Every structure is written in C-alpha cells, then in structure tokens.
Amino acid sequence: MKTKNIIKSLIFFFFCIIKINAQEVLTIENAIKIALENNFEIKLASNNLDINKTNVAVGNAGMLPKLTATLVDANRIENSSQTRQDGTVNALDNAKNNSLNYGVGLDWTVFDGFKMFAKLDQLKELQKLGEAQLKRTIIMKISEVNSVYFDLVQQQQQLAALDTTIVISTQRLTLAQNRFNIGKASKLEVLNAQVDLNTDKVTLLRQKESYINRKIALNQILARDSKVDFKVVDEVTVDGKLILADLMALAEKQNPQLESEIINKRVSELQLKQIRGERYPTLNLTSGYNFLESESSLGFTSQFSARGLSYGFRASLNVFDGFAQNRNEK
After folding, report:
1. How many Cα neighbours within 13 Å face the side chain of 33?
2. How far apart are CA 231 and CA 132, in angstroms?
3. What element of type H or E holds 3?
4. Strands 25-26 and 231-232, sheet pairing
5. Which burial class, exposed, middle or buried, applies to 118 when counting CB atoms under 10 A from its CB (0-12, 13-18, 19+)?
6. Are 97 and 78 in contact (CB under 8 A)?
7. In angstroms, rounded to a whole number, what is the distance separating the alpha carbons of residues 124 and 298?
8. CA–CA dist 61, 53 (Å, integer)
9. Residue 255 to residue 47: CA distance in whole angstroms
10. The sheet that has 89-111: what strands, in order across it?
11. Ramachandran angles phi, psi of 62, nearest 5°
C-alpha cells in the first residue's frame, strides 16, 4: 500500500514537470522586449520626446515673420443729412453705405532682446531632457523586470527543491511505517515523519502561492493579461568578466537622472535669459498690401477704391512695469 503511495507521488511529481515544460518558457530577453513594447510609461515618455522634437523649430522660437490675411466687409443703413456751406441741405433716409477692405500684412520681430535665441536653445535642451527621461524610464523598467524575473528563477528553483523534499519525506514516512510494522521503530518515529511531511507540504503550498503572485506581478509589469501562464529559465548566467568598479563608473557617467538634473538647470538658466530680455527694446518690421472699395448713397463721392503697399517699423521699450521685471527675474 505504501509502495503504491510512493509510486503515485512520483507520477504526480513527473506529471508536474511535464506540465511545466509544456508552458511558455519566458527568457529575460523576451520579457524585456515585451515590457519595452507594451509598457505605458515608456509609451508616454516616447510621445513626450516626439512632442519635444517637433517643438524644436525657429518658427516656434519666434524667429520667423507672421503673414496675416484680412477681409473686412462693413455695411450701414442710416438716415443721413448734410448741410453744405451755401446752406443747401442734402438729406436721404435709409442711405446705404458699404466698404470692403482686404489684404495681407507682414509683422516680423527682428530684435527682442535675444529672447528668441534663448527660446530656441531652450527647446533644444527640452528635447535632450525628453531623451534623458525616456532613457531613465527604460532603464527603470528593465531593472524592474530583471528584479522580478530573477526572483522568479529563485522561487522556481525552490519549488523544484521542495518537490524533491516532498518525495523524500513521503519515503521517510513509508520507511518509518514499515519499521513500526515489524517492530523496529516506535510510533513516535512515524508521527515525527508524518509531521515533517505535513510541514513540507505547507511550505510547498506557500511557495507555490508566492510563485504565482510573482508571476502575476511580472505579467502586470509586461502590461499583459495577468492570467498568462509561463515558466522562467532554470538558471541565470552572469558574465564573470564584469568588474564592479567599472560598472559603477559607467553608471555614474551615463546616469540619466543626473543628466536630467543638469539639463533642468540649463533650461532654468535659459528661461531666466528670456526674462532678462524684457529689459531690451523690441523692434518689429511691418508691411502690407491692401485693397479698399467703398460705396455711399450720400456725399460728394459715391464710389471710392484704393490699393497700395504699406511699410514701416514699430519699436517698444519697457520703461516701468511696477517692478514686475525685478520680481520675475528673482
């Protein structure tokens, strides 16, 4: 009877092994690849980087002129009365007057206290910041995947060891029972073997629960269904040529967090440069070409039309703004 129990335990053990082997074997490389493709934080950081790249343009910095097309159609119906110098009165009810004005206008800021150049440099720095933040997000996610994956490898090894322990404990119980049956052992030896087997089973159940929870956690990190079943590799190979001092120096040199802080400092300096640019005068060149047509039911001129080019410049200087400039710089 006891021999049959041992056989059943061995069959169950090997059946579990066959079932595990039928599962998806998820390597660390595939896990990282899935995480990089599916993780929402990485997608968000990548989208922010695309936005920052798009923003790097001379037009966005205010260096290019603005060309505006306008069209104004004005109409009036009114009761009009005109008295001439000779005393003649000219009156008309429901007099119609209309005018049509259309054209294009050019406005170009040619000097603004170097703010446009600081703005362009700031946009470039923000692009670098987006790259550093994306790099940091990727590194953090890879680190998270590695941590959970390697923990799963360890727990999977513990499960295999506990399965073997269950088989051994079952054999010990059978042996103790046989010894008791032939009078070579006491009942206490049988009970102790039974307690050891029960303890090993409880430990195995707890380990299985912990293993399942970590698999769910890894699936969540990979942004896929938490019910996806898989197994990890049996062992992890570490490159023995790695030197801790070199790795620490490389990590310090390529630390995206430190890089982000340096870029943020540069962005703040460029922002201050733009604020200080308010102390300088601003010079704008203006130009346009307009068409004007008007009709009037009353007056010396019933129709009027004009077209022509206009040009000039506009200069301004902040003389006093209630000390707001000083506050902004601080």
Report:
1. 5
2. 34
3. helix 2-21
4. parallel
5. buried
6. yes
7. 61
8. 13
9. 22
10. 66-83, 89-111, 282-296, 303-316
11. 85, 20
Using N-to-C axis directions, what is the helix angle for 28-38 and 115-181, rounded to 10°? 140
Q: Which two tokens mark 132?
A: 């550093």
Tell whether domain 2-329 is in CATH 1.20.1600.10: yes
* Rg over CA atoms, the chain: 41
C-alpha span between 177 and 192 (Å, rounded): 11
pLDDT value at residue 293: 85
Task: Read off the pLDDT of residues 28-69 as tens digits, 9 standing for 90 and up.
Answer: 999 999 999 998 888 899 999 999 999 999 999 989 999 999
Rounded Cα distance, 104 and 130, in Å: 38
In angstroms, rounded to a whole number, what is the distance separating the alpha carbons of residues 289 and 220?
62
- Per-position DSSP letters for 97-128, written without gaps between them: EEEEEEEEEEEEEEESSSHHHHHHHHHHHHHH
Residue indicated by tokens 């300096």: 269
Q: Is 208 helix (H, G, I), strand (E, B) or coil?
A: helix
Q: Which two tokens stand for residue 263?
A: 């870029």
Which pLDDT does position 246 carry in this prediction?
79
* pLDDT tier, 6 (very low <50, low <70, confident <90, very high otherwise): very low
